[in-house]
């Protein structure tokens, strides 16, 4: 099935005749994946505009009719991050067996149905179930869209396209914050389902990734997918690229049993997993799990407009991601990540110091704007590094035979870290205040910064094979 037969028995299609032309199709496929990623990222900030609604005493505002308790808020905030318990055993296998495209369709359907159920069924336990389902869908989205984005692009363009793909994150945050600021509960949740519905419509015309097709033994379709996704005038390059894909797929087929054991026994893959966990933990523990869900509530407590600050955060994040997309090939993902971590660490420590002084009534309330500055500086640093390169680096570290499993394990571990921090934050805040959590984020990420600086290889512009060679050389 996976024999490497040179592709010389077929005549070049007419698209190879003449000069190289712009390939719009790869942008269309990326655009479709971006819509699904927007749907997934909305679920990450869903609770932020909902806190004030669900804690309202006004039954015309709160669909539950009465304010939810602190423990109920903790459960509703964190329940979607329990999803790895359901998805970890299956997500990699489903992605490989049914393909990236079908997996994305599945997650889009789950997302749309869950939001529509929340919109029309006012029950706390139904909300929790639907939030868990959106969490499951979010896991499939994070894994499949990131892998899809990497697998449809060639190595020289992977960095730029990967960051175009991550622009969906700030767009999703901005979309959620804007509709959350102005829409009532039911309309908000209906609008949350819209990006997933758009993705389902666009999916009718996208191709699965060449790697996913090769994994299913569809060699001819993999070649056709490459023809659609690559610029014209690259026929010889297509033959080489398909041969490389088939080699990796053959290796995956030979090592399909006991994948986790094989991943760990392979020195380069083991190092990729450990570095992938560090990269994921760096992003989850940088403070973003405070800024996105709880910053609006925090600023409201300081008598500042939380929704306005959140919209500013999303705008800054969008332009930060866009800026990174323009410079990533020149600067490199590793440098962007390191500079981002430094800014995030300093911002969290500074914000923690301010909130500590505020809690002790040492500083005047006239200086509350300093907290906004700290958060906006944090988001500037986050959006120009950690937020936009984490998934791209993660997908590039693993070889094809372990990519779905490796990315799933790293993403799962990161989601569990998010669950713990999101569940604990309302309880810790009620007992001790916000500042101990922010100091913890700053200190733990300082440790991750040292590991990233000395151990993480630069992946920008390198093929998957070259990255594996770098990992093997630096054991």
How would you explain this protein's 3D organization?
The protein is mainly α and 475 residues long. The protein has one domain: Growth Hormone, Chain: A. The protein is 77% helix and 0% strand. It contains 21 helices and no strands. The protein has helices spanning 25-45, 47-54, 70-78, 84-87, 91-120, 124-151, 155-166, 168-182, 185-202, 210-215, 219-229, 235-254, 259-265, 267-301, 306-331, 333-359, 369-383, 386-397, 400-432, 435-455, 464-473. Helix 15 (306-331) runs parallel beside helix 17 (369-383). The longest helix has 35 residues, at 267-301. It is globular. The relative contact order is 0.14. The model is unreliable at 1-20 (pLDDT under 50). This is Major facilitator superfamily (MFS) profile domain-containing protein. The chain crosses the membrane at residues 25-47, 106-128, 161-185, 197-215, 272-296, 308-329, 336-357, 369-393, 405-425, 437-456. Keywords: Cell membrane, Membrane, Sugar transport, Transmembrane, Transmembrane helix, Transport.
């Amino acid at each position: 099935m996976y024999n490497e037969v040179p592709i010389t028995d077929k005549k070049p299609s007419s698209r190879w005749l003449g000069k190289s032309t712009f390939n719009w199709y790869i942008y269309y496929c990326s655009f479709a994946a971006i819509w699904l990623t927007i749907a997934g990222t909305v679920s990450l900030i869903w609770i932020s505009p909902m806190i004030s609604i669900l804690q309202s005493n006004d039954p015309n505002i709160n669909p539950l009719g009465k304010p939810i308790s602190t423990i109920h808020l903790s459960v509703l905030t964190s329940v979607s991050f329990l999803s790895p318990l359901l998805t970890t055993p299956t997500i990699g296998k489903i992605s490989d067996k049914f393909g990236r495209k079908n997996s994305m369709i599945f997650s889009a359907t789950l997302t749309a149905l869950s939001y529509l159920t929340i919109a029309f069924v006012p029950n706390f336990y139904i909300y929790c179930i639907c939030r868990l389902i959106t969490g499951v869908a979010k896991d499939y989205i994070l894994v499949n869209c990131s892998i899809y984005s990497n697998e449809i692009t060639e190595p020289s363009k992977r960095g730029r396209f990967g960051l175009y793909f991550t622009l969906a994150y700030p767009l999703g945050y901005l979309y959620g914050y804007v509709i959350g600021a102005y829409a009532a509960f039911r309309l908000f949740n209906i609008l949350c389902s819209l990006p997933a519905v758009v993705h389902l419509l666009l999916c009718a015309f996208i191709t699965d990734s060449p790697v996913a097709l090769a994994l299913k033994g569809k060699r001819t379709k993999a070649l056709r997918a490459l023809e659609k996704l690559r610029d014209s005038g690259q026929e010889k390059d297509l033959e080489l690229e398909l041969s490389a894909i088939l080699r990796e797929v053959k290796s995956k087929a030979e090592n399909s049993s006991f994948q986790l054991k094989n991943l760990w026994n392979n020195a380069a893959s083991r190092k990729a997993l450990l570095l992938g966990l560090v990269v994921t933990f760096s992003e989850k523990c940088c403070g973003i799990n405070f800024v996105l869900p709880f910053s609006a509530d925090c600023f409201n407590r300081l008598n500042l407009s939380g929704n306005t600050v959140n919209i500013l955060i999303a705008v800054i994040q969008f332009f930060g991601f866009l800026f990174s997309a323009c410079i990533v090939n020149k600067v490199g993902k590793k440098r962007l990540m390191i500079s981002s971590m430094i800014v995030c660490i300093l911002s969290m420590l500074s914000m923690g110091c301010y909130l500590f002084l505020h809690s002790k009534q040492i500083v005047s309330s006239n200086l509350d704007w300093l907290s906004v500055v700290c958060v906006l500086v944090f988001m500037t640093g986050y959006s120009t590094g950690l937020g936009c390169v984490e998934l791209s680096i993660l997908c590039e570290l693993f070889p094809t035979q372990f990519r779905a499993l490796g990315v799933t394990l790293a993403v799962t571990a990161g989601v569990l870290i998010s669950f713990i921090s999101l569940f604990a934050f309302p309880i810790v805040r009620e007992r001790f205040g916000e500042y101990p959590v922010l100091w913890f984020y700053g200190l733990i990420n300082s440790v991750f910064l040292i590991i990233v600086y000395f151990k993480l290889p630069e992946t920008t512009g390198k093929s998957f094979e070259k990255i594996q060679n770098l990992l093997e050389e630096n054991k």
